[in-house]
Amino acid sequence: MTESQSRFVQGLIVLLGVFAFAVVLAFHNITDGDLWAKLAIGSSLWKTGHLPRHDVFAFTPTLPKYIDHEWGAGVVFYALLQWFGPSSLIVLRMVLALGLLALGFRAGRREGCDVNILLLLAIPAAACILTGYIPVARSHVFTFFLFAATLFCLEEWRRGGRWPAAVLPTLMLVWTNLHGGFVVGLGAIFIYAAASVISRDRAALMVFIAAACAVVTLVNPYGLDFWRYLIPALLHPRLRILEWRPLPPLAWDDFWGFRLLFILTIIALAAGWKRVERKNWPGLAMLAMTACMGWRSRRHGPFLAAAALVYAGPYFQAVWGRRFNLLPATGLLYAAIAVWVALRFLPGASLYPLSPIGEDPVREVDILALAGAKGDAATPFAWGSYVSWRLFPNVKISMDGRYETTFPESTFDLNNAFYDHQGDWFRLGREFKVDYVILDLQTEQLRPEALQEAGYVLITNMFNVSALLCLPEHAPLLQAAARALPPSTVDPLDLSARRDR
What we know:
With 501 residues, this protein is mainly alpha-helical. Helices cover 59% and strands 5% of the residues. Strands 2-1-3-5-4 form a 5-stranded mixed sheet. Strand 4 (457-462) and strand 5 (466-470) form a beta hairpin. The longest helix is centred in the first third of the chain and has 25 residues, at 3-27. The protein starts with a helix and ends in an 18-residue tail after the last helix.
């Protein structure tokens, strides 16, 4: 096969890969609970011109200051929703995920790795980042992409380029105001700065760049208070939240891509170590750091995908690339994946985000909205932001997924005791006038019967998936709204329904 023919086949392989990856992302079009909180803060800033300094969404005790490390992501999400509609949120997710793979691929090529090796490596890398890009849409989609961009810039700097000296602080400035994950990028820059000092390669300039990147993190709406909030937040264990827990070594779950990539990378490093003469020590440090992060907290797996594409390629090539002509096998593998994706995922793929019953308290909020309800609502951790997005300022919530950004641990415990139906579970109802209670019957222990014994009236029970109860004084209004409820649910991403708010 001639070189031009090989490039043509490689181009087809890339197209097949982009098709398969985009279809899988389009198939997973269910909105994530964190999206609603970001849209709420983006809407507030868009309409008032300033960020709230104190929480306005909850009726329970909140922290003295409200510092949102993802405020910029909320502005981006809300702007896209307003200008281009709901589908733009899925398109943004696709662009950032494919951009991460493209940057990692390009950096790997600059490292001298063969195209076919990188195409094969991209398969487990893509599986690894899926867990970060399946939800629609979360602020960390920016972090994983910007991490790959940072590694690309650092590698260009290591190879003698000067343009990253200006780009890196700019990236860090943008990243700081999008998501708190910028600290991972800052750590990568510090590792490269330390390597420059040790090797005496433009050390002074690299240290200056690292210092500039650290300084620009202070350019945010909160100044130094941002770091005073962020450091405790980074150290917070969050063990009650599944995605923050350590990843079990042996399990079949959504994180199989990380485990596969980790195993393959370890094998390649061990087998190819002696055959790779020039070691990229900062790169090896990044591989170790991202692997540890992924095992320590399962939500951090996509960091390893970016690092593996950038740094692990030479070791894979040293083991397999010189022994086989990988192009035919690579083409067949990509074709098989594309066919499987077309059969399995394409029929259900959509560019429109959905919020089905069970994922969010859709019908319960429909009833409250139709009734024009006002007051305070007890809400599960994962559903509070949805209620705020659709019902604020008429209804305030007890808790939502913003967690340590907004609430002290005592409020978190108070709400958990209520929904876990443990101990003095009704303390929330005694200390506050809770007008409405929304129940997640799939994951929470609290049942409607317990609340009915406490004096609440059951308004609706949606297929034993979710339920709405209220104080007796609100029951006639909500019961009438439930009877008048249209058969179709309200689209929460339809901004026309929010024009009066």
